[in-house]
Design brief:
Elements: H1 22-26, H2 31-42, E1 51-53, E2 72-74, E3 79-84, H3 86-89, H4 93-108, E4 112-117, H5 118-133, H6 140-144
Parallel strand pairs: 3-4
Antiparallel strand pairs: 1-2, 2-3
Helix pairs in contact: 2-5
Length: 146
């Protein structure tokens, strides 16, 4: 007797990942950051008008505290989105402390900070971007532990 094969129902639904253009990498962006970028575009936002990539907020008010460069700065609602890769953000205590420091500096300026892991970005970046825009944020270490 031959059994019928049924599709598994518990697999996450994902869209095929877009090919990351060379122009994105030339800007200094990672693959995971590109997927978050596309997720922001899918919410109807436009780069330059509604958000910026790698906004350098190390102007005069930050001169003493060092560089604060969120991956994305969304203007409405005022929100910074940082993409957390396991390689760069969980490797050592100094990097983890810097992530917490950047979050504290941004929040002192009234900018809420959301963290999206590279796994979340490659699985369903648009979902995680919409969740961040809705005010659901987590800590840098929290997103890496999922």
């Amino acid at each position: 007797m031959v059994s019928q094969l049924r599709p598994r129902r518990n697999l996450p639904r994902t869209r095929p990942l877009a090919t990351v253009p060379g122009s994105w990498k030339a800007r200094g962006g990672s693959d995971a950051e590109y997927y978050v970028y596309v997720g922001l575009l899918r919410t109807g936002r436009r780069e330059g008008a509604d958000f910026v990539f790698q906004a350098n907020l190390s102007g005069s008010q930050f001169r003493e505290t060092g560089d604060v460069i969120p991956d994305f700065l969304v203007f409405v609602p005022t929100l910074a989105i940082n993409v957390q890769s396991r390689y760069y953000h969980s490797g050592n205590a100094d990097q983890r402390a810097h992530d917490q420091y950047v979050r504290a500096i941004l929040e002192q300026q009234g900018i809420q900070t959301a963290f999206i892991s590279e796994d979340q970005a490659t699985t369903d970046a648009e979902f995680w971007v919409r969740r961040a825009l809705a005010g659901f944020v987590s800590s840098p270490l929290e997103v890496l532990s999922t």
